Amino acid sequence: MEPETHLRCSICGESFEALSFEHIPPRSAYNAERVETFGLEHWLGRSDDGKMTGGRYQQRGAGRSSLCKDCNNKTGAWYVPEYSAWAVRGIRAIQQLTPMAEADAVIARKAARIGLVDVAPLRFIKQCVTMIMASNSPRFAEAQPALRAFVLDKHSQELPDKYRLYLALYRGPLARCTGVSGKLDTVTGDVHVISEVAWPPFSVILSIDEKTPLLPLGDITHFKAYSFEDRVDIELDLEVGFGHTPFPIDFRSRAAIDADAAKNDAMGQT
């Protein structure tokens, strides 16, 4: 039996006496400042005005000590520069949208088209998978060995059809990082198994064994067809989402949340 002091890397699964800190998302993708992190219990215990207390400060940005030095260095060199370049363009796209306060007062869900020039889609999608794996425990990599192989071989284009990756433009104001969880589609009755990293400007979502599409827009799984060296120009139609709750892919605006709450209150009184 391994000593309890040994920790396992969330990608390769090997045991080490210590793990390196992985910024989630990368430090160069607007994640370098001190952040205060909260759990679901803090959100449930928030005050009437929505404020949360009792969080934990992370001085160097959000993330976890979840990767070994080798996996951290490799993925950082192979994929992070591409993701960070996309993040810059994502922020610019958000800045061209309706101002935050005005958009947050609209109930209807919105979408936007984003154009990207001279990008490497395979590198981007591999960083998306890296972030999802780093935010989960090593048991996740054990259960999904195809994801491990996809990340550790920078040239691999082998991503089984059971996995779908989605991208959305994400405005915040809260960020969230959720491990594997289930989400019920109240329309179809399907239960989606998902994991999300949502930090402006993007929400990255992995969906496993879905029966119906998780989102109507933003499926980027086809990026796996590009080679590591391919650089292309692409256009994407993406949902524009807010982050007012800790629940994965809850992109509702404040107005939509308030409207849903009022509807639920009315139903409870009948």
Which properties best describe this structure?
270 residues; alpha+beta; six-stranded mixed beta sheet; two-stranded antiparallel sheet; 12 strands; 29% helix; 29% strand; globular
Description:
With 270 residues, the protein is an alpha+beta fold. The chain has one domain. It contains 8 helices and 12 strands. Strands 7-12-8-11-10-9 form a 6-stranded mixed sheet. Strands 1-2 form a two-stranded antiparallel sheet. Helix 3 crosses helix 5 and helix 5 packs across helix 7. The N terminus is likely disordered.
Overall tally of domains: 1
- How would you spell out the order of helices and strands? EEEEHEEHHHEHHHEEEEEH
Class derived from helix and strand content: alpha+beta
Query: Mean pLDDT, as a whole number?
Result: 90
Shape: globular
What's the alpha carbon Rg, rounded to whole Å? 19 Å
List the helices and strands and how they pair.
Elements: E1 7-8, E2 15-16, E3 20-23, E4 35-37, H1 40-44, E5 56-58, E6 63-67, H2 69-78, H3 80-95, H4 100-104, E7 110-119, H5 121-134, H6 138-143, H7 145-152, E8 163-173, E9 176-184, E10 191-199, E11 202-208, E12 232-243, H8 254-268
